[in-house]
Amino acid sequence: MLQQSDPPITGTILVADDQEANRELLEELLTAQGSKVITVPDGAAALEELRKTQVDLVLLDVMMPRLNGFEACQRIKNNPATYLIPVVLVTALSEKQNRIEGIKAGADDFLTRPVDRIELLTRVRSLLTLKHRTDELEKRTAQLIAANDELEAFSYSVSHDLRAPLRHINGDAAMLIKEHGPQLVPEAQLRLKRIQEGTQKMGGMIDDLLNLARLDRRSMDLKMTSLNSLVENALHDLESETTDRKIDWRVGSLPSVNCDPGLIQQVFANLLSNAVKYTRRRERAVIEIDQSTINGQLVLFVRDNGAGFNPKYSDKLFGTFQRLHTDQEFEGTGVGLATVQRIVRKHGGRIWAEAETNKGATFFFSLGEAAAMSAAVNRHASRK
Question: Is this structure's pTM higher than 0.70?
């Protein structure tokens, strides 16, 4: 009887056993719990049934004619169409070697006869619950992939559809200035200039949005990488912006970690570019890049003494097109930090910031277990 505390065992279960009495016993036990049960006399018949029927779990007797349980299990697990179906081997043999053979065949569980009713129902219920959750996860994953494909297609469509009219607007404004500029009053000239600036900014936003969409689709090329070399590259790229600035760069000794160097260099490039931008009003900017350990985890950080921000708005920092300063204060599209967050999450890490208004900001980020482990190996080697 089904106990009140136990949920029904829903699903379709295939039972393969050459003994009719065994098939009837298992069918009676499982049907009473709410399962749909299909019985066949051997492994070959089980494989044939799987070709035409969707099954949630398979119970295979080990000793059967034509095709024994080990062979049937192995074929089920080697078939891309059925490998996710849980398989339980049932046998009167209790030798260790039989269990080893079952594991080699890919069996998910093993029951020994005489089968204990409670043990059977408990294991079947657990495997079916796991199977249902796996199916749901696969379904959601497929939906996410489809949604990402649609988003990427939409992004390209938006890019193509918006770029053409933007080019026309910018071109017409430039033509008006060139051909009729002297005849226009100063206010009209100013408005045309603003039109050009607006179209250029929108073009930049479209490019940033496209790059952000592409980032999710990009596969990672992980390799051991010196983070100091990535910082040096990022600083080299910033030379044209910092030539006339007084900046005190404080670069610590960073580890080599397992990461995608191209993506992590983009992280440093965005964070350092932000630090340069938001320290613009300081007579002497101080920008620090270093590492720390927080709750036993390697954490990298970029700290500056710039404009900072109100910490109560920190949750908006990493949103697309979210900005905490106006264009009049500091230029930008609001995509840089969203990109940084995507890259860090892609590495299995997280990013957060601490700041106060007019007292600078610090951006912390981790890079997941692989990076932490490789950094720990570096530290251990350096102590020898």
Answer: no
- Indicate whether 291 and 357 sit together in one domain: yes
- Residues 156 and 280 placed together within one structural domain of the fold: no
Angstrom distance (rounded) from CA 220 to CA 346: 8
The 10s digit of each residue's pLDDT in 367-382 is 876 555 555 555 555 5
Q: Which tokens belong to 118? A: 């409670």
CA distance 331 to 348: 30
Structural domain harbouring 207: 143-217
C-beta pairs of 321-324 under 8 Å, 24+ apart in sequence: 321/205
Whether residue 3 is contained in a domain is answered as no
pLDDT in tens, 249-276: 999 999 999 898 989 998 999 899 889 8
The mean pLDDT of 198-225, rounded to a whole number, is 76
* Lookup result for tokens 């990009």: 218
Q: Using CA atoms, how far apart are residues 316 and 50, in angstroms rounded to an integer?
A: 51
Task: Render 110-143 in DSSP notation, one character per residue.
Answer: EEESSPPHHHHHHHHHHHHHHHHHHHHHHHHHHH
Which residues, including other chains, have CB under 8 Å from residue 321's CB and lie 6 or more apart? 205, 333, 334, 335, 338
Q: Which of 161, 185, 217 is the last residue of a domain?
A: 217
CATH (domain of 227): 3.30.565.10
